[in-house]
Each structure stands twice: as C-alpha cells, then as structure tokens.
Amino acid sequence: MSNISEKTLLDLELATVLNSVSEFCISDLGKSNVLQIKPFKSLKTLQPELLQVNEYLTSFINENKIPNHYFDDIQKEIHLLNIENSYLEPPSFLKIVNNTTTIFELLQFLKKFKFYYPTLFSFSEEIEYQKPIVENIEKKISSFGEVNDNASALLKQIRSNIHSIRSKIGGSFSKALSQYSSAGYLDEIRESVIDNQRVLAVAAMHRRKVKGSLVGSSKTGSIVFIAPEATLQFSRELQNLMYEEHQEVIRILKDLTNILRAYIPNIISYQTYLTTLDVVASKAKYAHKISGLLPEITSEKRVYFKNAYHPILLINNNLKKLKTVPQTLELNKQQQIIVISGPNAGGKSIALKTIGLLQTMLQSGILIPVEERSKTCFFDKILTDIGDNQSIENQLSTYSYRLKNMRNFLRSCNNNTLFLIDEFGTGSDPELGGALAEIFLEEFYTKGAFGIITTHYANLKVLASELENVSNANMQFDEKTLMPLYKLFIGQAGSSFTFEVAQKNGIPFSLINKAKKRVDGEKVRLDKTISKLQKERNKLQKNAETLEKEKSKAVEQTDSLSVKQLKIQEKLEGFQELYDSNQKMLVFGRKTNELVHKYFQTNNKKQLIADFNAWVTIEKTKHLKKNPPLAKTKVEKKQVKIQKQKVKTKLKTIETEVLVEVTKVREIKKSEAHKVAKQKANYIFKINDTVKIIGSNAHGTIDKIEKKNVFINYGVFTTKTTLSKLELVSAAK
Question: Strand order of the sheet with strand 709-713?
C-alpha cells in the first residue's frame, strides 16, 4: 500500500488521469488494472516501471517497434483448468494458443532488441515459453475451432461412417422423391426440411400410398410431410454415429485439458505478463498524447519542473483549441516552501495542483508533461488540503474539518513530505485564523517539509519574507486590464487587487472609497505598495522578454554573419593560394623562356646547363628557407632537442619572475582590502547613511535604528533588518 491517502488522490484528480490512460488499453483486464493504479511505496519498485514505460514510448519513434500484443481474456479458462474433471471447449483452446503465440513473438523480439529495450527485456526473462502448449492444441484443434478428424483413429472412423451414411440418406431420399413424383403423389413443392431432415411434400389425398413416417402438415392440411421409410433407417444410424462422435470429442477435449493442467502456472504468467504490458503500453500512449517524458529522479531532495503542464487542463484546452500556459516550479533546500498570493481566478490553485498531480503521477509510474531538464525526488508522503471540505454527515464546518486535517499534517509531516494547501488559514476570524496559520507554517518549515500554499493573508506573506528558506510568489496579472496571465513569478508576494477588481466589475467608486476608509491604513498602503511593485515587475519582465528575443535574433544574425565570413575567408585563402601558384608558374615560365631564348642566340649548350643549374640552386635555397628540412640524423635531432630545451628553460625563468611580481601585487591588494574591511567593521551606522543589504544591489537610506535592528527606506517601501546584514555605501553628510 502507498503512503499517499485516498483523499490526496481525490484532491489531485488522479482518477481522471487514470480514466484517460485506460482508454488506450487493448483489453478489459488492462483497463481494470489501470483504474486500480496507486502510487508506488518505494523508489526501488517505482524505477523499473518508469523505465519500462519510457522504453515503450521510445518505440513510437524507433524503427524497431514493439509487436502487437493483443490477447484474449482467459480468466474463465484458467478457472475451469483448476476444476477437476472439467474440460475446455475448442474456442477456449484457441484463446490459449493465441496468448502463447503472442508471448513467443514478444520474447523473440525483446531478445533480439535487448539493447534498445533493456528493462522490458529483463522483465520478459521471467517468462518461460512452453512450446508443447501450442503443439498439443494444434494437433487436436483446427484453426476454425473444431476438433480435427485426426485427433484420434476412432474419431476419424466415426466421421468417415457419418459421411458415408449421409451419402446413403441423400441417395435413398432422391430415389423415393423420384418414385413418388412419377406416381403423382407429391405436391408442386415436392420436398421440404423439418428439424434438419429432408421430407417429402405429399398431397393429403395420397398420404396412405407413401411409406414412411408422418412428421407434420401444412396450415391448410392440404400437404403432409413424410420421411421416406428407407431414409428413416439410415437416419437412426446417423443419430447413433453422431452420439458416438460427441462422446469421442468430449474424451479428446478432456485428455487435452488434462495435458494443459501441467502448464497452468505458465498460462497464468502469460495472462499476467500480457496484462502488465498492456498497462505499460497504455501509459506510454498517454505520455505520447500529452508530450510526457521521464525527468531525472535524484537522491538530492529537490523538485524542478520546467514548463510543466497540468495534464487534465492541457487535454481539455487542446479539445477547445485553447492555449495552455506552462508553469516552472522549483522546491529545494534554499526554497523549501512557496507561498502564492494574489487575486482569485489567477491560477494559484492550478499551479499548486500541477506540482501535486505531476509528482503523484510520476510516483504511480506515469510519465509527465515537463521539459527534459526537469528533476525531482521521491516523496514518502504527499499531503493535500484543497477545496471546501465541509462535512454534512459529521456536522463539521469547513474550518473544523481543516483543523482536523492540519492535525493529521502535523502528525505525519517530516523532511520527506510534500504538502499542498489551498487558501491556507481561511474559514475563521482573519486575525485569529491567520495567527494559527503562521504557527502551522513555522511547524512545517521546522520539520523540513517541502510545500506550496496559496493565501490572501498579509501576515503569511510577511512571515514568508522573514523565514530564510520560504519564498513569496504571485500569479501575474495585466496591470491595465487586470486579466490573469497565468504565469507564476517567484520572489514577490501578490496583491489581492481587491479594490481594483471591484471597480473593474462595476462597483461604484463611492462605495469602494467608503470601504477603503474602514480598512486599516497601513494594510491598504502595504497592498498598494505590493500592487505597484507587481506592476513594475510585469513591465520589467516584458522588457526583459523583448530584450531576450532581440538578443536571440542578434545572436542568430551574428552566427549567420560569422558563417558567411568564414566561407568568404576560406574562398579568399583559396584564391590567394591559386594566385600565388599562378604567379610562381609565370615566374618559372619567364625564366625558362629567357634561358631558351639565350640558347637560341648563342647555341651554347654548356652555358644553358650552367645557367639552369644556377637558377635551380637559387630556387631551392628559397624553398628551404620557407620549409626547413626535418632532422634526420641523430646529431641533427639532438641539436633540435637542445634548442627546444633552451627555449623552455628561458620561458620557465620568465614565468617564475612574473609569479613573484604577481604575488607581491596580491599581497598589497589583500592588505588594502583588509584595511577597508576593518574600517567597515568598526563603522557605526547613523541615520541617513546610504546602505545596502549584503548580497543585494538595491541602495536605501537608514530611517531608524533600534538596538540591533535597523529600518531602511527604499523610496516606495521600507524594510526591517539587522545591523550585521548591512554594508555601507556612503556615510551621511
């Protein structure tokens, strides 16, 4: 059994996903098994299932596709095999043959492609193919679902006799038909069939003239139907033979059933294997539909789902041809809990359910729609508190129910738990409920649990900013239209946009002003500040996205230009080489022409040879300067080695000298840095000093100092921190 409760599975709508998966099954057994899927209890048992599904998924884009594994449901046949003296009918044997043959084909395929599908192959090695099952059945049962004539010598003889008797029945009936037709005793229709038996249609007035057995008459009584006497005798023989055939067939079927009883474990294992493979295949087909994949499962405690889709929402939106916005969610030791705030209908609950459903799906052996770089770990427990769970039967209010749920959370929550709470702290007095919610949040944080909560409570937003490994987040809205963008932004709490949304929905401005006056001024100011910051963040993000797109275009253009420049450079180098070669040939040609012309004038062959040798010697000297010969003898190689060693020694000496100088410069810089740090450490902060929090870039001025606490004014808002976290930018004048 899994540690994940039925309530959690219900909250996250896993059953809806399983229904979608079951639609891809090719058997009723597979569908039944899919609908009963529960999350695995341990990572050890989960991993092989995920690998099988992932391997099956790769077969869709692989040339070596897994063969069809359609199979028959043989639950009834297995039940009968376990009952003594029972026997199977011929169609049941054909079902067993079909399943056994399918198993053989699969085992052969997976053995051949075990490097493509290692996990599926390993799983198949547990199955033992029994060839005698097929051989024994095919000897006795035909492909049409009948017992073969050659199943036994006696059956063959009986069927031969049946064929002979039927021929005699046909001959005797034709003779009687001809005889009584010639005598004029038969009606115009001459014959008919009653109870699978041919009979003569005799005119009622001549019924005493025809020998045989009366088997019926027409509605008017004008025709009587008589089986000829000669045919009756053969029919009795046929009935006896048919009875003997039936008895022999039953004997053969019983013998064959008894033979198969020795293979009951194999037949059961075939059924189980094919059902399991059907489940794996249905999961792979579902993953293909939602673009699911297997993220990396790490031993490190971390959840990182990049561009994750809620699969139910994705399928529904695809049917309606609507766009689905993906979410990128991350939980780790530095971001243990995320508190999502903001107005209703912005997608907070969907973001929360997305991470919960995807984690539950993955732990149930189903691939999830995320990007390849996504990672996650295995959670022992997934706890949820989603929606209005008011219990009429138990007469519990929503708040009472949620408090009982929190009690269960506190009991079972640990550092390997993922918890998801929607509308945290609601259902009671805002101040009292909010205070209790703070305590719960601190408990979950202390226990090291990972989680996501959604809330409207300002105190929880403040607490999230104060706790080191808890992050605020909000669902982004268009600041002009106040329409949701369904994008999660982590790092800042969200405004509820209460008054803005009310105004947008037509509430009179005068009423909104009255409401504002009744609310605590600081709270309105805080919400207004958050709202303003969120709008600024949206603008910055849009600008960042635009700049990123422009940067991508610029990079593409730069790459394109670089490629073109490289090609042009290569062509220029080629042209340069060709030009140099042509110039060299022209020089050689001119010199050769000059020597030949001189020879024609003087006719002095010795002078020609001397001039030519001198010219060749000069050209050779030039060539050797550009391309010095490689050292061949030991002496030459030794000289080259000595020269290289000299250069290396010289470089090492220079390097040592440079390092000495670098060390001196570093010492000077270190000393200066130490002096500056000492000055900063001894500095006593004053009001109006310009400071920044260590690790941040934002500058603010000190408004107030209370013991170790300090209040920093950033212009649009004020924050509180400790003196130890401050870094001086400039002292007050």
Answer: 718-722, 709-713, 700-706, 690-693, 726-730
Q: Which residues contact 253 (CB under 8 A, 6 or more apart)?
A: 87, 88, 89, 90, 147
- Secondary structure of 555-619 in HEC code, one letter for each residue: HHHHHHHHHHHHHHHHHHHHHHHHHHHHHHHHHHHHHHHHHHHHHHHHCCHHHHHHHHHHHHHHH
H or E, element range at 729: strand 726-730
Distances (CA, A) of 493 to 236, 311, 342, 473: 96, 27, 7, 5
Cβ within 8 Å of residue 525, ≥6 positions away: none
On the CB side of 651, how many CA atoms lie within 13 Å of its CA?
6
Report long-range pairs for 213-222 (Cβ below 8 Å, ≥24 apart). Answer: 222/187
**Is 517 in a helix, a strand, or coil?**
helix
Averaged over successive runs of 10 residues, the pLDDT of the chain (733 residues) comes to 82 94 94 94 93 93 87 92 90 94 94 92 92 92 89 90 84 80 79 79 80 79 81 83 91 93 94 95 95 93 93 92 90 91 75 93 95 93 73 49 77 89 67 74 90 84 84 76 73 62 69 66 55 64 78 80 80 77 79 79 81 80 70 71 82 83 84 74 81 79 83 78 81 79
Residues 6 or more apart in contact with residue 537 via CB below 8 angstroms: 476, 489, 492
| Domain 683-730 top-level CATH class | mainly beta
**Residue 168, Cβ density class (10 Å: 0-12 exposed, 13-18 middle, ≥19 buried):** middle
Give the CATH superfamily of 297-508: P-loop containing nucleotide triphosphate hydrolases (3.40.50.300)
CB atoms under 10 Å from CB of 460, counted, come to: 24
- Number of Cβ within 10 Å of residue 581's Cβ equals 10
Rg (CA), the chain: 46
SS3 content of the chain, % helix, strand, coil (to 5): 60, 15, 25
Q: Which residues pair with 490 in a beta bridge?
A: 473
Query: With b meaning 16 or more CB within 10 Å and e meaning fewer, what string describes 318-336?
Result: eeeeeebbbbebbbeeebb
Nearest to 300 by CA among 328, 326, 330: 330
Q: Distance between CA atoms of 544 and 536, rounded to whole angstroms?
A: 12
**Residue 453 bridge partners (DSSP):** 339, 421
Please say whether the structural domain 150-258 has been given the CATH code 1.10.1420.10.
yes
Euclidean distance between the first and the last CA atom of the chain, given in angstroms as a whole number? 70
**Which ranges of 262-304 would DSSP assign to H, the alpha helix?**
264-290
Model pLDDT, residue 246: 92
* Among candidate residues 57, 53, 21, the one with its CA nearest the CA of residue 37: 21
In the chain, domain spans: 6-130+263-290, 150-258, 297-508, 630-672, 683-730
The architecture in CATH of the region 6-130+263-290 reads Orthogonal Bundle (1.10)
Is this structure's pTM higher than 0.85? no
- The answer to whether domain 6-130+263-290 and domain 297-508 are alike in fold is no
**Any idea which residue has 């006896």 for tokens?**
240
| In 59-117, alpha helices (H) | 75-81, 90-112
List, as one string, the DSSP characters of 381-430. Answer: EEEEE-S---BTTTTB-HHHHHHHHHHHHHHH--TTEEEEESSTT-SS-H
Instruction: Name which of 297, 444, 307, 316 is nearest 385 in CA terms.
Output: 444
> Shortest CA distance to 474 belongs to which of 312, 464, 466, 309?
464
CA distance 713 to 159: 106
Sheet containing strand 450-454, strands side by side: 381-385, 417-421, 450-454, 337-341, 470-477, 484-490
Query: How far is residue 229's CA from residue 11's CA, in Å, rounded to a whole number?
Result: 80
